[in-house]
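Section 3.1: Structural characterization of target chains.
Under the original work plan, the team committed to producing a structural model for every single-chain target entering the pipeline before any wet-lab resources were allocated. The record below documents one such target. The sequence was received from the expression subgroup and is listed exactly as submitted; it comprises 156 residues.
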Amino acid sequence: MPLDRLDRKILSILQLDAGLTNAALAEKVGTSPSSCLRRVQRLRDSGVLRHTVALVDPAAAGRSLTALVEVFLDHHGVPQRQDFVRRLVQEPAVAQAWAVTGEPDVMLMMHLRDMQEYQVVCDRLFGHDANVVRFRSLFVMETYKAETAVSFSEDS
């Protein structure tokens, strides 16, 4: 679905504050509330606007250990990959997971309470899966930028 200037403006504002009322959003983007509501609904229906969420600070929620995990698989066939992905999706500690190019096959981002939970999760996800050849973890020491917004800047 092609996005026009008004769609991009609506999405940019909603990414910063999805709790705005429709009337406040319409005022910020310079359109009528009814037009704004129709556009937001169209963006939802088309899948451009996937979810409206509250972003929680992992550390404030007691999950201050963030691990980035590279996973190396032995077999890349659909059945083996689907089984692994199904378990990833069901694992609460896995916040994000991607199939990637390069040496690792999968990259994960996990939010954990501590190293003990990390060990339990790794045992559960990797320890009993013959398709996982190895995994390597990096632990976040400091966060410099953690944005969820997609940029609509014309300069990007």
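The domain at 5-45 is CATH 1.10.10.10 (Arc Repressor Mutant, subunit A).
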